Amino acid sequence: MVKEEKQENRGSVEFQVFSFTNKIRRLASHLELHKKDFSSERGLRRLLGKRQRLLAYLAKKNRVRYKKLISQLDIREK
């Protein structure tokens, strides 16, 4: 029963990138309304950096998983 509830691996690179992408999109829409919210902008930049480092790691380790992930999340390749 516990294994059924925990289908996704929350520690996987894909799940972490997915989570960061959701947070980034939410913060970006917030910043469109609140242009002078500089602390949220700083948080957005930190999340972008974390996601970029994870994607670089995944690209180095497994290029196929990397390509599949960026196509699913509609992220530009750097």
General description of the model:
The chain has 78 residues and is mainly alpha-helical. The protein has one domain: Helix Hairpins (Orthogonal Bundle). 77% of the residues lie in helices and 0% in strands. It has four helices and no strands. The protein starts with a helix and ends in a 5-residue tail after the last helix. The N terminus is likely disordered.
Brief sketch in words of this structure:
This protein is mainly α. The protein has helices at residues 2-5, 13-33, 38-61, 63-73.
CATH topology: Helix Hairpins
Can you name the CATH architecture?
Answer: Orthogonal Bundle
Gross morphology is elongated
Q: Low-confidence parts, pLDDT < 50 over ≥5 residues?
A: 1-5
What is the domain total for the residues? 1
Mean model confidence by pLDDT: 90
Class from secondary-structure proportions: mainly alpha
**CATH homologous superfamily identity:** S15/NS1, RNA-binding
Radius of gyration: 15 Å
Query: What is the straight-line distance between the termini?
Result: 41 Å
Percent range of helical residues: over 70%
Could you tell me the number of beta strands?
A: 0
State the CATH class: Mainly Alpha
SSE order: HHHH
**Relative strand content:** under 5%
Query: What is the count of helical runs?
Result: 4
**Major sheet summary line:** none
GO biological process, one term: translation
Pfam family, one: Ribosomal_S15
Keywords: Chloroplast, Plastid, Ribonucleoprotein, Ribosomal protein
Protein name: Small ribosomal subunit protein uS15c
